[in-house]
Structure formats: structure tokens, C-alpha cells
Design goal:
Helix content is about 0%, strand content about 55%. The chain is mainly β and about 110 residues long.
């Protein structure tokens, strides 16, 4: 059974850092890409970063501030978020697509105060 579980969200002041984790089970991240998305109140869900093997991609809004990485032993993907801004406030979700089916975690709230 494919499952994704996010953790690590919280409340932080502007300029601070958080590290989110997405623990995957039921499949291996060695063979599938994983992405981080976020959704702010009243806005559409948007892509933040993704990782596939050693290849990483970032949205322009987070380039240079966020880093996505993978721990193969733990089958977990991390999103290190530095220099956080109030506009980074959102629910963050991880996502993967296996055999045409999309899987999402339950999300973790990140709130950045000014």
C-alpha cells in the first residue's frame, strides 16, 4: 500500500528555517520521483520542488532558499527551507505518481510570521 506521510511543519518567524520530511512506504524512491507542493488559503496548489534520482528542480519562488534531498536508507525525502518568508505560509504536501495514479500525503502546515 502506497503511503506518504509529511512531518516537520510549524510556526517560524520570517528569516527562519524548517525541515519537512516525507516518509514513503509501499514503494521505493529509488525508482520514482517525488514532489513537494503547497497550497495557501484561497490559492491553487503549486509545485515547490521535486527530486528524481539525483535530479532536482525548484520553483522560481524558492530557488536558492529551499533544498530537496533524499535519504535512500529511510526512503524519505526532505525539504530544507531557509530564509522563510510570510508568503511561504501554506500547507505543504508531498506527491508521487505510480503507474498513472497520484498519491498525496495529508499535508503539514507551515506558518511564517512577519
Amino acid at each position: 500500500q502506497v503511503q506518504l506521510e509529511e512531518s516537520g511543519g510549524g510556526l517560524v518567524q520570517a528569516g527562519g528555517s524548517l525541515r519537512l520530511a516525507c516518509a514513503a512506504s509501499g514503494f521505493s524512491l529509488d525508482y520514482y520521483a517525488l514532489g513537494w507542493f503547497r497550497q495557501a488559503p484561497g490559492k491553487e496548489r503549486e509545485a515547490v520542488a521535486c527530486i528524481s534520482g539525483s535530479d532536482t528542480r525548484y520553483a522560481d519562488a524558492v530557488k536558492g532558499r529551499f533544498t530537496i534531498s533524499r535519504d535512500r536508507r529511510k526512503n524519505t525525502v526532505y525539504l530544507q527551507m531557509n530564509s522563510l518568508k510570510p508568503e511561504d505560509t501554506a500547507v505543504y504536501y508531498c506527491n508521487t505518481v505510480l503507474l498513472g495514479a497520484a498519491y498525496w500525503g495529508q499535508g503539514t502546515q507551515v506558518t511564517v510570521s512577519s
